[in-house]
Amino acid sequence: MKTYLRILAYAGPIQRLFLFYFLTTLLAIFFGLVNLSLLIPLLEVLFSQTDVGGALVTIPKPGPSISLAHLKELFSCHFINIIATHGRVSALYFVCTIMIISVLLANLFRYLAEIIAAELRINVIHNLRKELFDKISRLHMGYFTKQHKGDIMAKVMSNVQEVEHAMEYTFKVFFKEPATIIGFFIVLFYISPQLTWLALLSLPIVGGGITTIVRRLLKRAAQSQASLGRLMSILEEAMGGMRTIKSFAVRPYILGKFEQENSTYAKLNFSILLKNSLVPLLSEFLGVLVMTLLLAYGGRMVFLHESTFTASTFITYIIIFSQALVPVKSISKSLSNIQRGLAASKQVFALADIQPAIVNKPDARIIESLQQAISFKEVCFAYDHKPIIKHLNLTIEPGKKIALVGPSGSGKSTITSLLNRLYDVTQGVVQIDSLPLQDYDVQSLRKLIGIITQETTLFHDTVFNNIALGRPEASELAVIEAARIAHAHDFIKALPLGYQTVIGAGGSKLSSGQAQQLGIARTVLSKPSVLVLDEATSALDSASAKLVQEAIDRLMQGKTLFVIAHRLSTIRNADEIFVIDAGEVVEHGTHEVLMQQGGLYKRLSMLYYQED
Ligand SMILES: Nc1ncnc2c1ncn2[C@@H]1O[C@H](COP(=O)(O)OP(=O)(O)O)[C@@H](O)[C@H]1O
Ligand SMILES: [Mg+2]
Predict the structure, then answer these.
(1) Which pTM does this prediction carry?
(2) Which atom of ligand 1 is nearest the CA belonging to 384?
(3) CA–CA distance from 114 to each of 28, 93, 97, 177, 331 (Å)?
(4) Residue 53 has pLDDT above 50, yes or no
(5) 281: phi > 0 → left, psi -120 to 50 → alpha, else beta; which?
(6) CATH homologous superfamily of domain 2-15+117-352?
(7) CA 389 / ligand 1 centre spacing (Å)
(8) Homologous superfamily of the 374-611 domain (CATH)
C-alpha cells in the first residue's frame, strides 16, 4: 500500500482528476447496466409476454421522485402506454432507441474514464523517469564502477514500464471492476435474490482458482526482470567494447555469454507464458460451470412456476450474470500484473532511494576564486577499502604550478578526483582557503577546477554546443575565441557545417587530437582558476600532441596548475614536483633538486627523455 501511494504521488496534484475518473467510471457502469436491463422489455415485447389487459389501457404516470425503482416504474409505464396506444412495433423501436442512447453514453463515459486514467499513468511514468535520471546523475562515481550500466538502464526503461502496466490494472482492480460487480449484483438482486445468493457463493470458486496460478507467476516475474537487466548489461558492454571484441577475435566469447543469458530469459518467459495462458482457460471453465448451475436451478424454477420472474427476465438475468463474471476474471488476472509491477517498482524505488554520497551542505558556500591555497593534509583514500592514497600532504598557492609524477597506477588521477570531489577522502582533509571542500557548493567547486584528461567526451550535438557545454548563454564570439585559443578554429571551419556540424556518438567523427582540442576550448570557455592536466597529450601521436600542447600552453597562462604528464618539458619548470609511488609521496622538490637526489624521479625522467 505504501508503495502504491508513493507511485501515485508521482502523478502530481491529482485529486481533481481522480474525482473525474470515479464519476465517469460510475456513469459508464450505470449506462452499461441500463442497456442490459433493457433486454427485459425487449424480450417481452418480442415474445408478446407483456399483458396490457388486452385492451387499450393506459396507466397514469407516477409522481416525480429520484430513485432506481422510480426510474424503472417511469420506464415501464411509458412502455406499456406505448404498446397500448401505438402497438408493439413502436414499443420495440422505443426500446431500441433508448438502448442506442445508453450504449452511446456508456461508451462515451468509458472513453473519458480511460483517457483520465491514461493521463494519470503517463504523468507518473514521466515524473518517475525524470526523477530517476536526475538521481542517477547525482550518484557518486563509485556507483557506476560497481553497477552494470545495462542494469540501471533496465530499471529506468523496462521496470518503469512495468510500473505503468501495474497502474493500468490497479485502476481496474481497485475501482472500476469492483464498482462494476457491485452494480451488476444490485441489478441481479433486484431481479432475483434467491438466484443471486447462489451466484454469490460460487464467485470465490472462479476468483480463487485463478489467483492460485497467479501467485506462482510472481516469483518467475522477478527472476525475469533480473535476467533482462543482465542481458542489457552484456549488450551494453559489447557495444562499448566492439573494437576490442573484433580485434581480439573474441566474438564467440561474447556471443556465448549473450546467448547463455538470452536463453535463461527465454526459458523464464516461456514458463511465465505457460501459466499465464492457463488463466483464461481456467476462468472460462469455472465461469461456465457456475452459469450452468444457475441455468439448471433457475430454469427449473421457471418451469415449475416457483419463481416470481418470467422467462425473459430469467434470460436477461443469465446474460447480466455472465457479464458480471467478466470483471471477476479481470480482477484475478490483473492481480498478477499488479504484483509484477510492484516487484518492479520496489527495484525502481531502491534506485531512487540511494543517497548520493556527495551532496551540498545546507549552508554550502559558493566559491568563485582561489585566494590563499589548496592543501591536502594527511589525505588517505581507498576505493572499496583498498587503500590507494596514503597520508598525502601538499600545498599549492594561486598562480603556482605543481607536477605529479609517478608510475602508472600510483594514484595520480585519483588525487585529482579528490580535488573536485568526484570522491570524498577517507581520512584527512582537502582544503581550499583553509576550509574543507565539503563546505563549498559542489557545482561551484567543479566550475572552479577545470580538468583535461587523456580523452574528451563529445556528446551527440553540434561543435558549438559541445564547446559551450552546459552554457547556453555563451555568445558565438566567445565560443569562437575559445576555439582559436585551442587551435581548433581552423579545423572546425573546414567541417561541412562549421560550428553547426553534428559530432560525437553517431555524428561525424573527429580525430582524438581534434577531440582534445575541443575539450580545451570547452575548458577555456568555462574559465576555471585551477587547471588540472591529467596526461592530456599522452593518447595522441606526436604531431597532434604538439598542436594540443601549444593549445594547453596558452590555456595555462595565469592559472593555478596541477600537471600530470610524462613529458619532461611540461614538468621541468613546475614550482614543485611530487613523485608519487603506490599512493605515497616519495620525493618532492624542484627539477634540479630531484635530479641531484638521483632517486625515482631521476630514473623516471631518463625514461621520459628517451620518449621525448
Ligand atoms: N574507480 C575505481 N575503483 C577501484 N579502483 C580504482 C578505480 N580507479 C582507479 N583505481 C585503482 O587505483 C589505483 C590508482 O589509479 P589512478 O589514480 O588512476 O593511477 P594513475 O593515474 O597514477 O595511473 C590503481 O591501482 C587503480 O587500479
Ligand atoms: Mg591516471
Answers:
(1) 0.72
(2) 4
(3) 11, 31, 26, 13, 17
(4) no
(5) alpha
(6) ABC transporter type 1, transmembrane domain (1.20.1560.10)
(7) 10
(8) P-loop containing nucleotide triphosphate hydrolases (3.40.50.300)
First to last CA, the chain: 67
- 562: region left, alpha or beta (phi > 0 left; psi from -120 to 50 alpha): beta
- Partner residues linked to 563 by β-bridges: 403, 533
Which residues partner with 531 through β-bridges? Answer: 450, 561
Residue nearest to atom 27 of ligand 1 (CA): 409
Pocket test for ligand 1, best of 383, 424, 454 (most atoms within 8 A of CB): 383
Rounded to an integer, what is the distance from CA 528 to the centroid of its chain?
34
* Chain CA centroid to CA 152, Å: 9
Distance from the alpha carbon of residue 411 to the mean position of ligand 2, in angstroms: 7
Ligand 1 pocket list (CB less than 6 A)? 145, 383, 388, 406, 408-414
Please determine, for residue 322, whether its predicted confidence score (pLDDT) is greater than 80.
yes
Strongest mean pLDDT among 189-203, 337-351, 389-403: 389-403
- Which residues belong to CATH 3.40.50.300 in the chain? 374-611
- Region 35-50: what's the mean pLDDT? 75
| Residue from 147, 380, 381, 388 to probe ligand 1 pocket by mutation (most atoms less than 8 Å from CB) | 388
Question: What number does the ligand 1 atom closest to the CA of 414 have?
Answer: 17
Q: Note whether 309 and 317 are within 8 A (CB).
A: yes
**What residue type is assigned to position 101 of the chain?**
I
Q: Collapse the DSSP code of 471 into the 3-class scheme (helix H, G, I; strand E, B; otherwise coil) and give the result.
A: coil
Give the pLDDT confidence of 104-154 residue by residue, as tens digits. 999 999 999 999 888 888 888 899 999 999 988 888 887 887 777 888 888
Domain with CATH 1.20.1560.10 in the chain: 2-15+117-352
Grid cell locating 285: 471453465
Q: How confident is the model at residue 57 (pLDDT cuts 50, 70, 90)?
A: low
User: What integer pLDDT is reported at residue 381 of this predicted model?
Assistant: 95
pLDDT, average across residues 360-374: 91
Nearest protein CA to atom 14 of ligand 1, as residue = 411
Longest dimension (CA), the chain: 130
Closest ligand 1 atom, CA of 412?
A: 22
